[in-house]
Amino acid sequence: MVDTVRTLIQSPRTRPTLLFTLALVLYLAPFAVGTEYRLFIATQMAAYVLVAIGLNLLNGYGGQVSLGHGALVAIGAYAVALAMVDHQWSFWPAALLAMVAAAAVGAVMALPAFRLSTWYFALITLGFAEVVGGLLTEWRELTHGFAGVVGIPKPAVFGHTLTSLDLYWFALTLNGLALAGMANLLRSRFGRALVAVRDNPVAATAAGVSLVRIKMMAFVASAAMAGLAGALFAVQKTVVTPDDFTADFSIFFLLMVVLGGAGRLWGPVVGAVVFFLVPELLTALQSWRMLIYGVALLLLMLYAPHGLVGAIEAGWKRLRTRLGLSNIPPAPSLAAVRAKVEPVAGAALSVRDVEKRFGGVAALAGVSLEVAAGTTHAIVGPNGSGKTTLLNMISGFYPVDGGAILIDGHSVVGMAPHRIARRGVGRTFQTPRMLPELSVLDNALLGAFPAERQGAAAVALRLPRVRREQQASLGDAMRYLDFVGLADRAMEPAGELPHGQQRLAEIARALVGRPRLLLLDEPAAGLSLAELDRLGELVAAIGALGTTVVIVEHHLELVANICRGVTVLERGAVLASGTPTEVFSHEEVIAAYMGSQARVTQAAS
Amino acid sequence: MSANALIEVSGLDVGYGHVGVLRGVDLAVPQGTIVALVGSNGAGKSTLLRAISGLLRPWTGSIAFAGQAIAGEPPHRIIDLGLLHVAEGRRLFRRQTVHANLELGLYGTRLEKSEERRRFDRVYALFPMLAERPQALAGILSGGQQQMLAIAQALMRQPKLVMLDEPSLGLAPIVVDQVMGVLQRLRDAGTTILLVEQMVELALDIADQAYVLQNGVVIGNGPPAAIRNGDLIRRAYLGAVSDRPSG
Amino acid sequence: MDLDLLVGALTAGSLYALVAMGFNILYRPTNVFNFAQGDLVMLGAMVGATAITMLGLPWLVGAALAMLAVAVLALVEERIAVAPVLKQSATGHGWVITTLAVSMILANLVGLAWGPDPIAVKPPAPLSTETFELFSANVSSYQIAIVVITLMLVLGVEAFYGTRSGKAVLAVAEDRDAALLRGINPNRLSSWSFFLGGGVAALTGVLAAPILYASTGLGPSLLLKGFAAAAVGGIGNNRGALLAGYIIGIAEAVAATLLSPGYQLAATFAVMLVILLIRPHGLFGRAEARAV
Fold first, then answer.
1. How many domains are contained in chain C?
2. pLDDT for A506-531, tens place per residue?
3. Chain A neighbors of B205, CB-CB under 8 A
4. How far apart are CA A434 and CA A510, in angstroms?
5. Residue C75 falls within a domain, yes or no?
């Protein structure tokens, strides 16, 4: 019996069969239990699911709290209503208008989000919702004011007016398409980038992701879906009034997303279903509705932050473990991947008289160094000497106060960090910046973001050229994971890897971007002696590929073994520069590094 | 371990998250002395101080202060016992004035107004450059002045023992001299000091005893002369590089 | 501009500034922005109105009762909806949703307990809402009282931050670890700040009641306008909030004369947005250092 269950769970045909069965049931259900009322409710629920899917993209995966999606639905609904009633448009162009109008407003709403922090943004969207609500009533010339727009006709296809059954099927189909498109998007580079923007924006930037563009994309997509849902809403109810779109309306959608499971694909569906069914079952508690929702929201955030779907997933994982099945999916096979990692044309780095001031304190006072293309160079020095500051300036995370930084002869001063990354500069950080819930492979794939070129629409439709590109990136990622020695842990959640291996994964991610200049910030920190050896070999191998490597380190032994050049920084200035032998055999350098210089000064004064 | 050790650390293992930093550390700070803790960056010196002052919870091992077990106690209770930690990077409240920072050093104490005034006077006498500008915002002071303020802040509570984490960081040599001078005067007046430094010579100059930390393990301890003459320092900082021929 | 309108604007602006101050007090040690603040103000108004109008208690007693009740409620909110979420993740934004949830719960409870009808509240004698002429403007003694009381409260709260405990709160906001090392207990300070912030919210509600009516619709609009005042003034800055409150009150009044009332909110909102886009940290706010 257990064996049968296990086989069923593991069979690749189980999932599609279940989905097909579900679809069949949903499409055919009206013939068995359909009444006008039930069709009405089901269609309305489908519209809500559409909004929730979009909001889940923005909130669950993107981490932005929007309390204004109700207003976007309103805009979509009114657009369709006014176009069809006042201007005799057919439904189909009207629905398109609804999506465009909502998307445009969504884009405007998103603008403050880029300069202001997340919770500011939540309040601004709330404000938007109130303003739109007010305008719907006030702008009578456009919106018909309090009375709203009445007599919205049902959509027609080739002369056939859609019945409520047709409308239900239409809504169901929209939901199916939305879920499929969303799944494709989330499993692509956009999904990874979105999660990165939410969980570790610095890592995202270092991988070449433009935070602004990704956030804007998420906004516009979720707004368009809200607009489409509004269109559906309008033709189903045949009347739209301002009262349909109170500020509470927006909160409902957030509640659906959180209840179902933010950041889970099926979350919005489950959330909307539960949200709808509960009042139906608890009609007696109608007046207590908001109270119950509030308590539910609070309890969810405290005890089940991943909602119902999250709780189900956790239970499912426990079940699998008990059945002796692993929770880690099989890694893509390496055999399909080309065996060799390709060489790289390293970039030359030139830093000239660079200065950096924090407040009145000079962190770097005129530092210069030259790194020839394809060589490995170390920056060493005591704490506070400015090593990480310099690295941050080369990669664009700190603005440059004076001096020049040239990569292959092109100045990068004033360039945004994600654009510097896209020019072939990869980096790691003192503490590995991973996306802990994604697999090691997904983390590595984040590095391929700039290389993949297919747009969001193509990705959502999963066109053949998208599939080819994704296969190629997958191959790259697996190859580099193999290169750093993590291929066998590719599918594990990155957060569960020990520190040393997270560091290797971060290096792999940087390598996937095929950097011509690789900046490593204290990669040896926290590593055991065995891991140190491996690291030395790895950095040497990276250098052998042709990549220019600049490494900030304290472990001078590691540095001496693998670097051609060393620059010693002390108190923001260059103390010595040259080959490791030259630099480390200088008594002065060693003395300064260990503080004897201070004693020399004392004795002299 | 001498009988009059003010701090006794024994078998300490501690780290952050899954990452272990210190392994089996033993350390004793005798009363009325300056004990230096040296080692290269990443050796775990700051981690040890944070475990002692209560910011980090030890995994195994024991920490005793004046005979009382303090491992795992919250910071404010350890402070009440008379053990103060001056963190690295001169962690002051930069948006508040010098005087406000000193006043916060007295937070949680219940002293008579007259006693508070006496403490202010004493601290201002020890650090005349602070007395010159008590209303200046801490953020605009020079590095050296900020370091003095950080020490002064701790001294407001007249602690039995002060732990300092890299007080020389980012300071000019002359200022460092001044800071070390202050520490010596404190020791002479009866305060015990545990001094963490990356600048070895600095620490060895004023310490009565030193511990050398490498990769989370104590690799040696003893009087400064012994530490200086031995091989420990070069090994701790430079590893095998120290074996290369001098140029 | 009509002077009468100016007086009304300053009065409304004072109330917005008070709401903003409530936000700021809670924000300082926790970096949490309380979405339930508007409902706390409303609750204070309702409790006060019930005590004063329906039970006939003296104004001061009613106000004190309201302040105590709401302060305790705010403390409870901090313990069950804020502290646990901050412990889960110090940098996350789960508290946006939990404070929102508290707002929903409070709004609903107040609605159920008091019903939708507003309660009229008379100002405490000898103040009244009757207007008289002062420098060719029609003002009421109550309006003057509100402006004056607000000024005093702002100064009072600023004075509090000059005490040792107040400095400790600022210290926690600036550097939590350093505060810990000086014996300051951030959790205790957070709880007390919520208590104080709740009290200020209740007082705001009681003061607003004679003018804005104690009703269940008070919450949402005060939330947004109070936020606008706090954001434009610079979060955490009470004097900034005062000035910003006046600015928003005036913007509202001007919009009312130029546009029909429904557009008021849109106009005010637009003003706030423009200011924030130019100066994202408010007129008097400070940018925070970025860590890489």
1. 1
2. 999 999 999 999 999 989 877 777 78
3. 599, 602
4. 12
5. yes
